[in-house]
Amino acid sequence: MNWLTKLPHSVRSPSGLEWTLWRKLPLILVVGTALPILLALALHLLTPQGTGTDTRWLQTMDYLVAGVVVVHWSAVLTVAIGCVVVMLMKGPGYVADPLELSDSDKPRSTDKSDKAE
Questions:
Q1: Cα separation of 66 and 3, whole Å?
Q2: CA-CA-CA-CA torsion for 59, 61, 67, 69, nearest 10 degrees?
Q3: Between the CA atoms of 94, 98, 104 and 106, what dihedral angle is there, to the nearest 10 degrees?
Q4: DSSP 104
Q5: 15 contacts 102 by C-beta, under 8 angstroms
Q6: Do 90 and 82 meet the contact criterion of CB atoms below 8 Å apart?
Q7: Amino acid 44: pLDDT
Q8: Which residue, 31, 49, 86, 108, is the most exposed by fewest CB within 10 angstroms?
Q9: Is 111 left (phi over 0), alpha (psi -120 to 50) or beta?
């Protein structure tokens, strides 16, 4: 099934920053996720166990780390969507099904009212 047809003589724009970013996004995602989690793990291992305030502080840090990771994921997803949009817009031009307009510049020869006059 051929949904779109390439426009003849369409020109592709040269690739730029979007491909560089696209290739680095998996690494950015992994590093940006691993660093806060490793920091939270280090806090749990290095904090001496004692009163209830220590556990509350650690729980607050866990929530903070979870928030940082979720914001990082959403930022990476946003940049990925932007890269895909730019890649599609720089690619070759496509045309979908043609739509005949009734107010076009060329006269309609198939209309019966035009033949009756």
A1: 42
A2: -110
A3: 100
A4: -
A5: no
A6: no
A7: 87
A8: 49
A9: beta
**Cα→Cα distances 84→21, 78, 95, Å:** 11, 10, 19
3-state SS, residue 38: helix
**Contact indicator for 12, 92 with CB cutoff of 8 Å:** yes
Q: How far apart are the first and last CA of the chain?
A: 43
Q: Is 33 exposed, middle or buried (0-12, 13-18, 19+ CB in 10 A)?
A: middle
Q: Which residues contact 104 (CB under 8 A, 6 or more apart)?
A: none
Does position 84 have pLDDT exceeding 60, yes or no? yes
pLDDT tens by residue, 90-112: 888 877 766 666 766 666 665 55
Q: Which amino acid appears at position 51 of this protein?
A: T
pTM of the model: 0.70
Rounded to whole angstroms, the Cα distance separating 71 from 84 reads 20
Look-up: residue for tokens 């920053």? Answer: 17
